[in-house]
Design brief:
With about 160 residues, this protein is an alpha/beta fold. It is about 50% helix and about 15% strand. Helix 1 crosses helix 4 and helix 2 packs parallel to helix 3. The radius of gyration is 15 Å and the shape is globular. The chain starts with a strand and ends with a helix.
């Protein structure tokens, strides 16, 4: 069972239906996932992800996992987190720290939980993971091999560091 903190595990079936719908409408990721299942190009990757916890993100997470990555997710925006989707991810074995309407303290606790898994890659929306690594977890820097940032705001924050 993965490490996690979510609002309601009982929503997993509903979340699974939402993820299936999104997957059916994301054909490029479906092709990548099929290739990843065969080749496992991400074997050994520990991905820390701070992204909107939506059905579309779940399809990305499942694609990365199909490629062999261990993904740990926290929601980048407590108002966009879909509780049913994260429940389904947890049921399927993903470590998730996210629930709708978190407080600021809860949000940063979740970011720190992701970092506790010692990722060697990050994918971020707003640079909160990278900022937390540099401000409170510099012990992780040496193990970070790369990362991605989704937003212009995050890139601006990174340049200002």
């Amino acid at each position: 069972m993965p490490d996690y903190k979510i609002k309601d595990e009982g929503l997993a079936d509903d979340g699974g239906l939402l993820i299936e719908w999104a997957q059916a409408h994301m054909p490029v990721l479906a092709l990548i996932k099929k290739r990843f299942e065969a080749e496992k190009p991400l074997e050994g990757v520990k991905m820390g992800a701070c992204l909107h916890a939506t059905k579309e993100t779940a399809v990305l997470v499942k694609t990365l996992e199909a490629g062999g990555a261990e993904v740990v997710l926290c929601g980048s925006n407590p108002l966009s987190t879909h509780d049913a989707v994260v429940a389904s991810l947890v049921r399927d074995g993903t470590s998730v720290y996210a629930w709708r309407e978190q407080t600021a303290d809860e949000y940063y606790w979740c970011v720190n939980e992701v970092l506790g898994h010692k990722p060697n890659y990050t994918t971020d929306d707003g640079a909160d993971l990278v900022n937390a690594i540099h401000s409170s977890r510099p012990d992780l820097i040496e193990g970070i091999k790369g990362g991605s940032e989704e937003t212009t705001t995050g890139v601006i924050r990174l340049r200002a560091m």
